Amino acid sequence: MPVMPGFDEGARAKRSDGNPMLGVLSAARRSMTHHHLSTVADMTERDLERSLREALARHVLVRTDQGAYAFRHALVREATYEGLLVGERERLHLKLARALDAARISSGDTPSQLLADRAHH
User: Fold this and answer.
1) Residue-number span of the structural domain to which 84 is assigned
2) Residue 79 located in a structural domain
3) Angle at 86 between CA 37 and CA 5, to 5 degrees
């Protein structure tokens, strides 16, 4: 049975802890901009860019029309998320919630999608 493009790469990525950016994106539930990824991921800018390039080249991630990054397949996102330890998930959700709070405060409004994402974390 053929494997969908990117799925095998994503499955390999979830088994290794070599790309923490994928863990961040998997916990976020939806696409993230470069700025938001750099805010949440514990990576240097150079390492983040290298990780993004690698994930794009391996067809694990795609760029959205809005210039954000997202998993090519929901199953890869789910597999990556399931590969995180409980403590990693908790830390990521806390960081994501704080980033969403900061975005809400800086924008001055509370759009419904932002509130829904905050509730998730």
Assistant:
1) 7-120
2) yes
3) 55
How many structural domains are present in the chain? 1
User: What are the CA-CA distances from residue 78 to residues 33, 72, 92 (Å)?
Assistant: 19, 11, 15
**Domain annotation covers residue 2:** no
87: in domain: yes
Whether the full predicted model's pTM is greater than 0.85, yes or no, is: no
pLDDT tens by residue, the chain, 121 residues: 455 555 555 555 444 456 899 999 999 988 999 998 999 998 999 999 999 999 999 999 999 999 999 999 999 999 999 999 999 999 999 999 888 878 765 655 545 554 455 455 4
